[in-house]
Amino acid sequence: MSPLTPSLSPRVLGERGKSFKVPLTLKKVSATDFKKLQEIYPLKSYKKSTNREDEKMKCVVLRTDVTNVNCLRRQRKNSAFTLVELLVVIAIIGVLVGLLLPAVQAAREAARRAQCVNNLMQVALAVHHYDFNMEHLPSGVIDPAGPIRSEALGQHISWIVQILPHLEESAAYNRFDQSAGAYSTQNALVRQHSIRVLTCPSYPLNYHEPKIALSTYVGSHHDSEAPIDANNNGLLFLNSKVRFADIRDGSSYTLLLGEGFIDDGDLGWVSGTRSTLRNASSIENVRRDARLVSQGAGVDSEAPKDSLYVGGFGSYHTGGANFAFADGSVQFLSQNIEPVTLKNLGNRSDGEMVELQ
User: Fold this and answer.
1) Per DSSP, which regions of the chain are E strands?
2) 277: number of CA atoms within 13 Å, CB side?
3) What three-state secondary structure class fits 43?
4) Which of 125, 127, 145, 146 is nearest to 136 (CA)?
5) First vs last Cα of the chain: how many Å apart?
6) 187 and 107 in contact (C-beta within 8 Å)?
7) Alpha carbon distance 152, 183 (integer Å)
8) Does residue 106 surpass a pLDDT of 90?
9) If we measure between CA atoms, which residue out of 188, 186, 191 comes closest to residue 213?
10) Which of 14, 19, 177, 314 is at a distance of 20 to 30 A from 257, taking alpha carbons?
């Protein structure tokens, strides 16, 4: 027998009482309906339950002696999401995700940039250890003659090869034959050896094809665009042996290392060419090399046609690049830095005062 719809009209109750006989039993009705039933039927016919749980539910348990009255039950309407409500919830979630994703990406980039600072600091510390042992900074590149061309010809021993023992890479250093040259087959295994601290976390690849280990950290050889040669005014250049006494502008105002883009045709970290040396002519905007274009990761960055061209600094971070100064400190310089200021930082002894913000 289906429950009757709530109605406390005496007439309706009487009519329903004729059709439905309800035996003496316990029934639950709402407190409101209980008051209305008291108005219709004598109070003695009902008893209020003393059960606490029933009181919490705001219900009363009635005992009725009236057999021709069906005790009313409160009907509950089944609740559920409508299609419109569901679409609204999905739209709100989509908006929240859209607002959250940029913040997550920014947090990840901040973490990568912090790791890049740590890497650069470790490399700068290794250069300082080299100076402590040899009483001069490593040569930017070791080669019998200059200027240096960015070609796989010549000795081209990079400054990174010279500091390998101070990067905890003594095995690679002992295996590398400097007299044979950077591109010798005898040094092929070392040339393929990837050193994690030499790669910025924002750069997703570590190798060229064929397999050549790379470095996104480069030394400063000159204050403007010029071939790598013995007469450069930076700290790391051809056959250089710069001492701290030669840094007359102050080690806190002279660039030692910085970040550089990896171009298609890069010769790897063992090569003392533009692969590991750059000048203070510019800080380029964010871009990617040619190998990432096929993966949809960025624009083409072809190697310069002139092998004597070196180029400025650049990074895979937005807005500028990280630099290690000669005193070992690491700072982030904006790509919008004044060209004159950047040039002064790239010269070890120009006598100019520099204001860094």
Assistant:
1) 26-30, 59-63, 141-142, 157-158, 207-208, 212-213, 217-222, 255-259, 277-279, 283-284, 313-314, 320-325, 330-334
2) 38
3) helix
4) 127
5) 86
6) no
7) 6
8) no
9) 191
10) 177
- DSSP letter at 32 equals H
Other Cβ atoms less than 10 A from the Cβ of 145: the count is 11
Report whether the peptide linkage leading into residue 210 is cis, meaning its omega lies within 30 degrees of zero: yes
Tokens of 261: 């883009």
Q: Hey, what amino acid is at 284? A: E
The per-residue pLDDT for range 298-341, each reduced to its tens digit, is 333 455 668 899 999 998 888 889 999 999 999 999 988 999 99
Residue with tokens 């070992």: 328
Cβ contact 217:198 at 8 Å: yes
Distances (CA, A) of 27 to 251, 253, 307: 92, 90, 97
Mean pLDDT calculated for residue range 85-99: 87
DSSP of 98-116:
HHHHHHHHHHHHHHHHHHH
Burial class (CB in 10 A: 0-12, 13-18, 19+), 90: exposed
Residue 126, judged by CB atoms within 10 A of its CB (0-12, 13-18, 19+), counts as buried
Q: Which amino acid is at 247?
A: I
Query: Which residue in this structure is represented by tokens 């700072």?
Result: 331
In this prediction, residue 41 carries a pLDDT of 53
